[in-house]
C-alpha cells in the first residue's frame, strides 16, 4: 500500500506521533508532505549518515532524528504549521525589526510547544 498525503483537518493532529526512528519518521513525512519535505528528509538522512561514518560519531544521526521529530510534531497540526510558516516569512522579509523579533520569539514558542507535546 502506498502512503497517501493526509488532507486538512480542524485542530486535531493529522497523524499520531511516530516512533523516533528514521523509518517511522520517513513514513510520517511521506504522509504529511511527500512532494515538499520528503526529498529534503532523504537528502538530510544521507548527509547525516555520511557525516556519522566520516567522523565516527552518531551525533549527526541524533541531530537528524531530533530535527525531523520536531518537524513532524509541528506539521501534523496544520494550524500550527501554517503559523510557523507565516512567522518564518515575517522573519525573512519584514523591514520592521520589532515585527521580526516578535515572529522569531513565536517560532521559538512553537518549536518548544511541539517538542513538549512529544514527551
Characterize this entry briefly.
Helix content is 71%, strand content 0%.
Describe what you observe in this structure.
This protein has 119 residues and is mainly alpha-helical. It folds into 2 domains: 58 residues, no CATH class; 42 residues. 71% of the residues lie in helices and 0% in strands. Helix 1 packs antiparallel against helix 2, helix 2 packs antiparallel against helix 3 and helix 3 crosses helix 5. The protein is globular.
Structural class by helix and strand composition: mainly alpha
Shape: globular
Task: Indicate the radius of gyration in whole angstroms.
Answer: 16 Å
Intertermini distance? 30 Å
Number of helices: 5
Low-confidence stretches: 1-9
Please tell me the overall pLDDT. Answer: 91
What number of domains? 2
Largest sheet: number of strands, sense, barrel closure? none
H/E element string? HHHHH
The number of distinct β-strands equals: 0
Instruction: Report strand %.
Output: under 5%
